[in-house]
Write a structure and sequence with these properties.
The chain has about 290 residues and is mostly helical. It has eleven helices and two strands; from the N terminus they run ααααββααααααα. Helix 1 packs across helix 9, helix 1 runs antiparallel to helix 10 and helix 10 crosses helix 11. The protein is globular, with a radius of gyration of 19 Å. It starts with a helix and ends in a 14-residue tail after the last helix.
Amino acid sequence: MELLIQQLVTGIATGGIYACMALAVVMIYQAIHHLNFSQGEMAMFSTFVAWQLLQWGLPYWAVLPLTVAVSFAGGMAIERLVIRPLGQAPILSHIAVFIGLFAVINSLAGFIWDFTIKPFPSPFGEGSQLGGLISNHQIGMIGVTLVVLLFLYLFFRYTRIGLAMRAAAENPASARLVGIRVGRTVALGWGMAAAIGSIAGILIAPLVFLEPNMMLSILLYGFAGAVLGGLSSPAGAVFGGFAIGVIENLAGTYIPVVGDELKLPIALLLIVTVLVFKPTGLFGRPVVQRV
């Protein structure tokens, strides 16, 4: 029983990171209707920025908001300079650009900070609670994730900018007719997705260590969570992220053939299964077009 509780708590902690990545993926998908394959690399680069600020002697709780602000600006800049000029280009053009961004950001991080593995400190200490069932860092991960998700819920539900972003994502043409600047809301969505990704990267770095390829598997888990919950449902993506975290931990512990080596294929299998039997995800809505 103690092992089950430990794996559930660990799954919720890592699932919170997957939920953040899944939410960032869905936010960009709703804005431009394409999956951003460079989302993980953007988060990785932001984590390196945080590490560099820490090396310069800034305190952790000053580094976090600074990194989020830099990431927000970087996400908006990528949308303005790279994505917006594509306009209504074919889907293969978008895919090629995202793969190019992936390669460029990954190589740039390696060029600036090299490809050696670096330890990343945790602000929550090295101890554990509840008789060793959960570490202080895992408690911090859960707490920060819940605060971020609560902030986003309140932002999108009760602020004018948040409501405008929801309207622009739901129906851009109608949003323009009522005076919403859709282009600006798309840029804001990119900025917020980059900021959320940076928080996910900073929280997961103490567990996986810092190096240019650290977010590849995390992004795949985020994709799995987004697909499981539904690419048209931000709340579903959050649920999917937490579910993936719990499922992979329980599968790795209680299914002997899985272990630590086959956790990632479990996530990929979930993506394939959901797409085959329910392409819109558990909470997604089917898209109906009038012709």
